[in-house]
């Protein structure tokens, strides 16, 4: 796509990015070195969570937003997982509830105490077991409380009802690892990208595939629903290995509406869409820049606006929900950028330049709030409802009254669609078999070493006994 800005009549034409000063950053954080393609960061109006590098299991930090500056090395962590943490997401309706998934095949729900952690947290409010391999993605439902989706390396998507602590649906239509999941505005549709180079639009409650695109020229990596416009945007790689974005009609995935090449770099492109301003942000993993566009309803659909540039490469980006923005500064979007080399989390505000200090109603329309529109039973029975909207002028500091209550249950088999998920393990891949073979070889070597040490010790004892018997004292 051309890098030149197209000067059009738009209130967002001059949006600019402003990085926070050093004292307003979070410093001294051992950001994970895991190469999994996720953000490793989640943020809401109260807390910032970052996956950290740790030995002997997986852990992440939860820091109150006002606690900026240098973080102590012994700062308390959430460290209950036995494997590396691969994804974390805050509950959109309860600000102290966070979901995490890990290489230990579990999904866990954590309840963060008021004011943040005072000591290490090892006990989760709820542990969810249903995947037979590591779990790479978690996603909360946008309008229903206590509905969570998880995607694992067993090629399955599980829908969890946290009120009962059990999976209520298994989506088993993928032939390879699921790379990304995205809900539409009311949560009635789910879009997924997969390593089998296919883009799918699903009805999540039935698991039925409504639309499917075989992306041979545009190998998809990430997908995002563009609000209520009935369109999807994907990022991926073209046949010439250049980074590319494509716009799709959700009701016809036979051909993309447009395909645009971005550049020839190799890092994964993360898309972020703001439905209130119709702005799309593109940030590459390992890049220092963030491009942003305005999306229209007519051709050419995408209009380039500007680019925020920084010399520091980003590993991932957390995004502040709308009700956590500073509306007095005309802030329309805020990123939290992970800079691994510096151990730094840097807030980046996207600001519309306005001279007036009064509330700018034209750039802050009614936006999805912190109240769920549906209960889990209503959504699972087939009801769809748009999100409950709130005004950022009056209610953006309002706290939700909802409280999470973990169900009391015993550990047992997990049966969905007549299949025990914990017993029905899929065939192992070649890499997994190789890893198992090498582990067994290491174990055999260790046992041999132990036996040889025991043989040497036995010989020493036999020699000592012989010498003792032959000594003059005993004759």
UniProtKB/TrEMBL annotation:
Signal sequence: where? none
Q: Where is the DUF1899 domain?
A: 5-69
> Mind listing the UniProt keywords for this protein, alphabetically?
Actin-binding, Coiled coil, Repeat, WD repeat
Q: Which InterPro entries match?
A: Coronin, DUF1899, WD40/YVTN_repeat-like_dom_sf, WD40_repeat_CS, WD40_repeat_dom_sf, WD40_rpt
Judging by the UniProt lineage, the source's domain of life is Eukaryota
Coiled-coil features, chain-numbered ranges: 444-471
Which SMART domains is this protein grouped with? DUF1899 (SM01166), DUF1900 (SM01167), WD40 (SM00320)
Ranges of the WD repeats in the UniProt entry? 78-120, 128-170, 171-212
Single GO MF descriptor = actin filament binding
Family to which the UniProt record says this protein belongs: Belongs to the WD repeat coronin family.
What protein name is recorded for this chain? Coronin
Which species does the entry assign this protein to?
Sylvietta virens (Green crombec)
Where is the organism placed in the taxonomic lineage, from the top? Eukaryota, Metazoa, Chordata, Craniata, Vertebrata
Task: Identify the gene encoding this protein.
Answer: Coro2b
């Amino acid at each position: 796509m051309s890098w030149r800005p197209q000067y059009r009549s738009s209130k967002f034409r001059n949006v600019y990015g402003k990085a926070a000063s050093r004292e307003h950053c979070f410093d001294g954080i051992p950001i994970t070195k895991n190469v999994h393609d996720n953000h490793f960061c989640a943020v809401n109006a109260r807390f910032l969570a970052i996956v950290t590098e740790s030995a002997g299991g997986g852990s992440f930090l939860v820091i109150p937003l006002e606690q900026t500056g240098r973080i102590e090395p012994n700062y308390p962590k959430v460290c209950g997982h036995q494997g590396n943490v691969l994804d974390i997401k805050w509950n959109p309706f309860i600000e102290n509830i966070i979901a995490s998934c890990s290489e230990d095949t579990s999904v866990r729900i954590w309840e963060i105490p008021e004011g943040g952690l005072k000591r290490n947290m090892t006990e989760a409010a709820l542990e969810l077991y249903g995947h037979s391999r590591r779990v790479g993605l978690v996603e909360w439902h946008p309008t229903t409380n206590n509905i969570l989706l998880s995607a694992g390396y067993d090629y399955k998507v599980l829908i969890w009802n946290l009120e009962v602590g059990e999976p209520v649906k298994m989506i088993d239509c993928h032939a390879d690892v699921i790379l990304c999941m995205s809900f539409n505005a009311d949560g009635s549709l789910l879009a997924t990208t997969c390593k089998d180079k296919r883009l799918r639009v699903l009805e999540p409650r039935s698991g039925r595939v409504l639309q499917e695109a075989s992306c041979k020229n545009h190998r998809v990596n990430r997908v995002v629903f563009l609000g209520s416009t009935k369109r999807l945007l994907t990022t991926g790689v073209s046949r010439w290995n250049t980074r590319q974005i494509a716009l799709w009609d959700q009701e016809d995935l036979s051909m993309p509406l447009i395909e645009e090449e971005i550049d020839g770099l190799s890092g994964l492109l993360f898309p972020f869409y703001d439905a209130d301003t119709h702005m799309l942000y593109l940030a590459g993993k390992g890049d220092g820049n963030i491009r942003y566009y305005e999306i229209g309803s007519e051709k050419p659909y995408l209009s380039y606006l500007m680019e925020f540039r920084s010399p520091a490469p980003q590993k991932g980006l957390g995004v502040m929900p709308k009700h956590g923005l500073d509306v007095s500064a005309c802030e329309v979007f805020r990123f939290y950028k992970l800079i691994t080399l510096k151990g730094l989390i840097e807030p980046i505000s996207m600001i519309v330049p306005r001279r007036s200090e009064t509330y700018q109603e034209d750039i802050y329309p009614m936006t999805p709030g912190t109240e769920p529109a549906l209960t889990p039973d209503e959504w699972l029975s087939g009801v769809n409802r748009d999100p409950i909207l709130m005004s950022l002028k009056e209610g953006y500091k309002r706290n939700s009254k909802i409280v999470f209550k973990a169900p009391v249950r015993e550990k047992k088999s997990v049966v969905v669609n007549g299949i025990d998920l914990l017993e029905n393990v899929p065939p192992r891949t070649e890499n997994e078999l190789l890893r198992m073979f090498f582990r067994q070889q290491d174990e055999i070597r260790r046992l041999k070493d132990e036996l040889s040490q025991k043989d040497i010790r036995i010989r020493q004892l036999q020699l000592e006994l012989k010498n003792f018997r032959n000594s003059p004292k005993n004759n």
